[in-house]
Amino acid sequence: RRPPPPQSPLDKVAAPEGLSLPELAGRWFLVGVASRCRDLAEHSHRLEATAVVVTIPDGKSLAISTFRKLDGMCWEIRQRYLPAQAPGRFLLKGRGYSSKVDVVVGEADPATFAILYYQKGRNISVKLYGRTSQVSDAIVDKFEQRVRAVGLSEDVTYYYPTYG
């Protein structure tokens, strides 16, 4: 018999009790991200201010419009986070087989910040969003604690500029 697969770090992340999706709607700013993504590491010096607009089209899923500058042009990226097995958990389907991303809202105070976890295969990343482009040091500390809890470190944590 094969042993059961190891528990995913995302399985240990609990979504906040009583998370109200409508409270997540509105404009957010991407403040920081922790990820072992090679592209992010190679181009971290070119990070641009990034804004996100969240809508709840059907009361269960999140429609995400990300606005960012790339090579001097503004781009909009649209994604749909579909509801998964529990409140605060979502599935982002990509193109092709095995290109799904599991998403968990790990912690949120909808008036000020949200910490989301993303897992594709065995790779995990953590993103910090703020209602403003700058958040308090206490929120940054909380984000960095969550990053360490899933085995990432400050050398793969990047913060976005607050201008642009």
UniProtKB/TrEMBL annotation:
InterPro entries associated with the record: A1-microglobln (IPR002968), C8G (IPR043245), Calycin (IPR012674), Lipocalin_CS (IPR022272), Lipocln_cytosolic_FA-bd_dom (IPR000566)
All residue ranges annotated as the Lipocalin/cytosolic fatty-acid binding domain in the record: 25-158
Xref: Pfam families: Lipocalin
Gene Ontology biological process terms from the UniProt entry: complement activation
Gene Ontology molecular function: complement binding
Keywords per UniProt: Disulfide bond, Secreted, Signal
Presence of keyword Transmembrane helix: no
Subcellular location per the Swiss-Prot or TrEMBL entry: Secreted
UniProt GO cellular component terms: blood microparticle; extracellular exosome; membrane attack complex
PANTHER family xref list: COMPLEMENT COMPONENT C8 GAMMA CHAIN
Protein family per UniProt: Belongs to the calycin superfamily. Lipocalin family.
Protein name: CO8G protein
